[in-house]
Amino acid sequence: MENIVIQGGTPLKGSVEISGAKNAALPLLAAAILADEPVILHRIPHLNDISTMTNLLAWQGAEVTYDDQNCLHIDTRPANKPEAPYDMVKTMRASSLVLGPLLVRFGEAKVSLPGGCAIGARPIDMHLKGLEIMGAEIEVEHGMVIAKAPKGLHGGRIVFDMVTVTGTENLMMAATLAKGETVLENAAREPEVVNLADALRSMGAQIEGDGTACITIQGVDRLAGGDIYTISDRIEAATYLAAGLMTGGDVTVTNTDPHLLEAFLARVKEAGATVETGDDYIRCIANGRLQAVNIHTMPHPGFPTDIQAQFMAMMCVAEGTSLISETIFENRFMHVQELVRMGADIQLDGHTAAVKGVARLSGAPVMATDLRASASLVMAGVAAEGETVISRVYHIDRGYERIEEKMRSLGANIERHYVQK
Ligand code: EPU
């Protein structure tokens, strides 16, 4: 078992380089299934979720190797098992991203239905409905999605009931090799969707409209391999910036793109911080205590749900009361009770948390419950007076590359301890 132990209270200062985005890299790995040549994925972070996906591709028969430049070389030509077993999907729901690519390449796919998840029910019904519109026959038996399209998939018009990021990605990938035109309406506009569309286009796909709510894909006969580049992790960048601000510090994130974080940076300015940006960096400087600001999570370009917990941690020490509404996931407030253990004053009412800022948090033993909740606890620990011990840190290793090292480079006193059970 591992714990993260933090002696808090030091303002974070300095600059930190941001990794490639986990949520962009995962669909890019799935897209490798569509290529009839090897692909080289650049700027792939070393994270547990990435290993889960590479293990899945390797289990299917693909050749997968990491080089020492953070590049993944993937050749899916030897793959011959169009399946994703429960053990792999249950640890990471994004494994279901292989469904569309496997089905359109092999004419069949057997992918375990993901179970519930800590932050919400997270069904994949819209992925399945979309594939049915494209001609797939789908049955769910013994917890497995069994999809067949022996004559291949065809295009269709799919209107999503609600915005789904991986749903959009799954269907966009399937549509690249389907016959005819597919139109995805009410599609996700997240930068990770645009990154995937750019990658697929570089492989020969015909896609238009990504970054808007209507994406049109004309199916092609084949997709080539080649070099594919992952965008910067906007959630990781926001986490370090928010941590800096929460400690009254001055943090710069590099190798990133300020356009990825417009909603977050607007709120940070509203809270009274100074924001400086260049082509590939963002600097946030605290000017005394932050002011309380309200947020409402929304699909892109709204305020990202993946930064809600971190923003809440920051608001715990702001002046005034901040209202934080979570509209994407029904259960994404598990960090609240842990933050309260550290002295935060938070009242929960359904989908809204009222966070009344306190002068200072105090270190305490707390438990990580999901990926972004864990990040908020690390931030709170760094800002708090005294010692914070975070258990169940495996959640954080799913999505933050070398977090202790990066936090230490900004002046945090943070270590990982290996504890015998
Ligand atoms: N939904 C359905 N049916 C579906 C699909 C989604 O009801 O078929 C609902 C979900 O239950 C949720 C909402 O639609 O209430 C939006 O979910 P979405 O499908 O967009 O989420 P996702 O694609 O499973 C991705 C990210 C999440 C991020 C969300 C929202 C990846 C691998 N994951 O999940 O990232 O929170 O979009 O932006 O891209 C994280 O990194 O910590 C994380 C959870």
What would you note in describing this structure?
The chain starts with a strand and ends with a strand. Helix 6 runs parallel beside helix 7. 31% of the residues lie in helices and 26% in strands. The protein has a 4-stranded mixed sheet, covered by helices on one side. A hairpin with a 2-residue loop joins strand 20 and strand 21 (352-356). With 421 residues, the chain is an alpha/beta fold. The mean pLDDT is 96. It has helices at residues 22-31, 48-59, 86-91, 99-106, 125-133, 165-176, 191-202, 234-246, 262-270, 308-315, 335-341, 371-383, 394-397, 403-409; strands spanning 2-8, 13-17, 39-42, 63-66, 72-75, 83-84, 108-112, 137-141, 144-148, 157-159, 181-185, 206-208, 214-218, 226-229, 250-254, 274-278, 281-285, 295-296, 321-325, 345-349, 352-356, 365-367, 386-391, 413-418. The longest helix has 13 residues, at 234-246. The structure holds uridine-diphosphate-2(N-acetylglucosaminyl) butyric acid.
